[in-house]
């Protein structure tokens, strides 16, 4: 019997959106909590059962203007813990440069290629994981400069990636708002959830 794909989301609303599109015979969807710590712990608990063949971190996200517009679907080539490191007088140092490990996890190449094939309109780029999401133009500009390949930011992908261990991992996001100043009038949650349902319809095909 083929093992199912595990899709983890932060909150129940995202899980419901994924379930609305995914084939329940092949895809199991679970909300595991907000933020990298909750995501890692919840994912590790689920994967410890040995019942899954791959794991996808999915949900809505903020998009980098001019890289991933509101309504877009993005696939993470890499999930990056963008605020894991240390401040210095000369700027931010990631844990990689501090010698404490890596802040970057690459998506499984085979899984990413398969997802891109079933989601040809998806934008492929880096997805940043932040414990504190961006709320100012200055922070958005700094992140855009530090991460020229970043297309979106969310709060769980890196945690899920670390918990995946050697299991194939990928990150799928749909864009609900531009990063930067938190203007809720510009958010398009309904559209992002609908896009997430549409994208989820092809998940099991990518893992077939």
Secondary structure: elements and pairs:
Layout: E1 5-9, H1 12-21, E2 27-31, H2 36-47, E3 54-63, E4 73-81, E5 85-88, E6 91-94, H3 95-98, E7 104-106, H4 109-118, E8 123-129, H5 137-146, E9 150-154, H6 157-164, E10 169-178, H7 189-200, H8 203-206
Parallel strand pairs: 1-2, 1-3, 3-10, 4-8, 8-9
Antiparallel strand pairs: 3-9, 4-7, 4-10, 5-6
Helix pairs in contact: 1-7, 2-6
Describe this structure in words.
The mean pLDDT is 93. This protein has a single domain (5-206), classed as Nucleoside phosphorylase domain (Rossmann fold), CATH 3.40.50.1580. It starts with a strand and ends with a helix. The chain is globular, with a radius of gyration of 16 Å. With 208 residues, it is of the alpha/beta class. It has eight helices and ten strands. It is 34% helix and 30% strand. Strands 3-9-8-4-10 form a five-stranded mixed barrel, surrounded by four helices. The chain has a two-stranded antiparallel ribbon with strand order 5-6. Helix 1 crosses helix 7 (189-200) and helix 2 packs parallel to helix 6.
Strand content: 25-35%
Please state the CA-atom Rg, rounded to the nearest Å: 16 Å
Low-confidence stretches: none
Q: Class by helix and strand content?
A: alpha/beta
CATH topology: Rossmann fold
Task: Please describe the biggest sheet, giving its number of strands, its sense, and whether it closes into a barrel.
Answer: 5 strands, mixed, barrel
3D shape: globular
Mind telling me the CATH superfamily name?
Answer: Nucleoside phosphorylase domain
Tell me the distance between the termini.
Answer: 12 Å
Spell the H/E element sequence. EHEHEEEEHEHEHEHEHH
**Mean pLDDT level:** 93
How many individual helices? 8
What is the number of independent domains?
1
User: What spatial order of strands do you see in the largest sheet?
Assistant: 3-9-8-4-10
């Amino acid at each position: 019997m083929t093992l199912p794909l595990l899709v983890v989301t932060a909150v129940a609303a995202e899980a419901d959106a994924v379930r609305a599109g995914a084939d329940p015979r092949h895809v199991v969807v679970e909300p595991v909590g907000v933020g990298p710590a909750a995501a890692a712990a919840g994912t590790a608990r689920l994967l410890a059962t040995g019942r899954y063949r791959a794991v996808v971190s999915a949900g809505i996200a903020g998009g980098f203007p001019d890289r991933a517009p509101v309504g877009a679907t993005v696939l993470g080539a890499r999930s990056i813990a963008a605020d894991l490191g240390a401040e210095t007088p000369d700027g931010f140092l990631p844990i990689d440069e501090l010698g404490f490990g890596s802040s970057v996890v690459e998506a499984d190449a085979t899984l990413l290629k398969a997802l891109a094939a079933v989601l040809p309109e998806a934008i492929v780029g880096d997805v940043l994981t932040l414990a504190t999401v961006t709320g100012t133009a200055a922070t958005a500009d700094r992140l855009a400069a530090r991460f020229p390949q970043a297309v979106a930011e969310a709060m769980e992908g890196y945690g899920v990636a670390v918990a995946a261990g050697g299991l194939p991992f990928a990150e799928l996001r749909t864009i609900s708002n531009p990063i930067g100043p938190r203007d809720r009038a510009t958010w398009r949650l309904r559209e992002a959830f609908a896009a997430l349902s549409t994208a989820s319809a092809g998940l099991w095909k990518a893992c077939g």
